[in-house]
Amino acid sequence: MNKNQLEILEKKFDKQKSYIQQLESQINLKTSEIVDIKSLLEKAHLEMKKFDNDLDHILNFILILEDKIKHQKNGISGLQDYIQNVILTEDKNMLFGVGVDRKFIKNKSISTIKYYLYTFDCFIKESYKLENLKVSQKKDASIIIKTLIDYIKISFKNKNIQIKGIIELSAQDIEEVLSIRFYGNYSIEEEIRNFIALYSQ
């Protein structure tokens, strides 16, 4: 093989090498685009799933509310009376959900929370003083209420009953005796009594 032939082969090799590098660059670019598209699709899927869940919640809320209005002779006035009679503090830090998500309480208006309680037949109103469960500061009160809610949820789970409601912690005399008000679909009198007996020992 003479020198000219060798040079020709080298040029062809360089040309092929350059072409291969271009192909590799294009493949890497396409791979990156595919990864980005896959990431976007996964994100879109999660957003759609969240939207579907929110939509289902809203539709169920509307259907339950419509059903109550249809099956009550004075459904609308009954709802209005309920909204007026359920007095909840505007301080969301004093409201605790029993079977109600914390984010829902935090993000929704007081009126929406009342509508929610109404749709789940939370017509029971009870007030309690948690005797012998004294606290030294506000954050201790919050811990006690959250522990109480866990106790209530376990108790009703053992009864195979779905409990829904809101516990409102009274801000008055919070460092003396804890006072709470409960709106729910079942009475929690037994749970309160047992909780006090258990945790005041």
Automatic annotation (TrEMBL):
<protein>
    <submittedName>
        <fullName>Uncharacterized protein</fullName>
    </submittedName>
</protein>
